[in-house]
Amino acid sequence: APDFSLKVSWVGVLLREDEPIYMAVKGVVFDVTSGKVLPTAEFYGRGAPYNALTGKDSTRGVAKMSLDPADLTHDTTGLTAEELESLDDVFTRVYKAKYPIVGYTARRILNEDGSPNLDFKPEDQPHFDIKDEF
Questions:
Q1: Quick check: is 87 in a domain?
Q2: In a domain, 39, yes or no
Q3: Global confidence as pTM
């Protein structure tokens, strides 16, 4: 899986219709492109409700169900037990279940000093199943 330690590719993701749309939750990068082409609603495409979550690790925003720019960060400091539980639930039942994992952020695979995190284990997606529900 690619290492998304640099934000170089994020700009293209947000600006070009033919490019995939990526977002990260808990340091796991998901391809949420399928969320931009639904006939009933565009979730993640340009101008769509959840577009603010894309191109970054929006873990805090997902936990708080918030699109406030201050919450669009990986930082989970100060989240309540209820918010952390919600984060785990949405991470598993929405993102891991509906969108393919395409990589990990540097925070997920590296230690603060830049050395490899030897405890890193890739996420599995046993329940991942692409369905044509629409």
A1: yes
A2: yes
A3: 0.76
